Amino acid sequence: MVRNLKVYRLCVFLRRGLMYLVLFLFCLMFLLPFFFLLTGSFKTTSELFTVPFQWFPKHWTLHNYEAVFTQIPFWRYFRNTMLIVITTVFGGLTSNSLIAYGFARLRWPGRDKVFMIVIATMILPYQVTLIPLYLMYTKIHWVNTFLPLIIPSFFGNAFFIFMMRQFLVGIPMEITESGRIDGANEFQIFLQLIMPISKPVLTTVAIMSFLRAWNDFLGPLVFLGSDNLYTLSLAASMLRSKLDPNWELLLALGVVMVTPVLILFFLLQKYFIQGITMSGIKG
Asked: Taking the mean position of all CA atoms in its chain, how far away is CA 226?
């Protein structure tokens, strides 16, 4: 009996050890590019292409970071990026939560059919609708402004609507009914009862909206023609030239752009994970 227990414990220990080893290898595989980005940002051009390859620079330098802030109008691009990001996140939270509430908590004719149509729009890739959008924005004189990058977020996103709707469906209807019995209207129920409970999914949508707007390159490239309106995602093209790609500066800019995203995720990771795991409770 004692021997069988020891064998069982040994098997459990080996199985857990193997599982942790596999997880460690996968984590290492994902972390290696970021580690190369971080160490490469402190190297010179010659050290980046030394043979054999060296992970750590022989002489650590901050010249690359100084050049990022001096060779391009970094703070202007940062201000433009933050303007787009903040308004996009606000518009996404406002529109998607309202639309998802209508699909999840209100009963009206054709609700499920309209919801399926909204979900079907996820099939269309952004590149397919880019040319019609550009022609439309040109006619209403929105090209070369921030409006094409901001206004669409106030009309909802199919994926965010789906995710928030799945979360709201999991909230008991008794909460809504109790609010109606107490005399609250739908907006009061939405703002005072449902939204406080929906912090996890709201945080998830906010983080995803932030990432989409922060990393967007194609949208600013197409709709922003003036250097005064450029974002940080377009700053990489400003650093590169045909004769000198400036790899070390691009690595430093990459570290600068990744840092806010990492900070945001680690601050809100608890709500983010809850929002992802709880968005599929009911369907």
From this structure: 26
